[in-house]
Amino acid sequence: MFKKKKDWKKSDGIETSNTIALVNQKSAFKIKEAYKTTRTNIMFSLASVEGCKRVIVTSAVPGEGKTTSTLNIAKTFADTGAKVLVIDADLRKSKIHYYLELNNETGLSNVLGGFCKVDEAISESGQGFDCITAGPIPPNPAELLTSKTMADTLAYLSLKYDYIFIDTPPTTIVTDCTVISNQVNGVILVARQGYSNHDAVKKALDALNFVNAKILGFILNDAETHEGKYYNYKYKRDYGYGHDFGLGYGYGYGYGYGYGDTNRNMEVKGNQTTK
């Protein structure tokens, strides 16, 4: 049975709204089109994969907009009628339940710890896709993610959904992303123009390549637009690393992540708000 959304109040300490994190009818045309382009690129890159497609969305460091990107990609896929699930696998600094205004008392950590069944942790997002929140913070996130229970959970969910998008912690902060990269069909790396550090992104790529993760491409958040163009849109080689990303996911918009300095101001471009 699906969990119901929690009625969040301002007293929860965080202002949350679907209109802040998710693309909606009032969002700028170029943002909506950019996510549609992202959807098309992902679909083509995974066209040879039969059954459920499982994708990790991660970043090099906090604050690059990976969680918001995960939700908007999922929403864009759900708009096509596909059965989509988002899993918050950031068991250390989860944010998806805030953005979707969901109760986080039961989530992935409960499932992996053997405290509930998978179906009991699935929530309706209210955005056309389902979600499994992170749940209570466990003492051993990496161990839970590499457990047989995690593999069995993904196998079970793959029978129910067309696409599963997994939000993980930043790659250079902890190993959670790399340890489960062998359980998905590909990884999308999110970077943020004017914010992402060259060395950090290279380190993230090196870590993913070391475990033979299939890097589908990247999303460049807060990309500056130019007259006559919908969005800043790049293919393949970027940042001068010499890595062939295979896809360029163009324009997105940034949002906060939550690690480190929570007082840092973070601008959200494209008809959104600032924090």
In which range does the helix fraction lie?
25-40%
Which CATH top level class fits?
Alpha Beta
Please give the count of helices.
9
CATH architecture: 3-Layer(aba) Sandwich
Q: Give the strand order of the largest sheet, numbering strands 1, 2, ... along the chain.
A: 3-4-2-5-1-6-7-8
Structural class: alpha/beta
- What order do the helices and strands follow? HHEHEHHEEHHEHEHEE
What is the tally of beta strands? 8
Strand content: 5-15%
Mean pLDDT figure = 78
CATH-defined fold name = Rossmann fold
The Cα radius of gyration reads: 17 Å
The separation of the N and C termini measures 35 Å
Shape: globular
User: Considering the protein shown, what is the CATH homologous superfamily?
Assistant: P-loop containing nucleotide triphosphate hydrolases
Explain what this protein looks like in three dimensions.
With 275 residues, the chain is an alpha/beta fold. The chain has one domain (10-251): P-loop containing nucleotide triphosphate hydrolases (Rossmann fold). The chain has 9 helices and 8 strands. It has helices at 18-21, 29-45, 66-78, 96-100, 108-112, 141-145, 148-158, 176-180, 198-210; strands spanning 53-59, 84-88, 122-124, 130-132, 163-167, 186-192, 215-221, 248-251. The protein has an 8-stranded mixed beta sheet with strand order 3-4-2-5-1-6-7-8, with helices on both faces. The longest helix is centred in the N-terminal third of the chain and has 17 residues, at 29-45. The chain is globular, with a radius of gyration of 17 Å. 46% of the residues are buried.
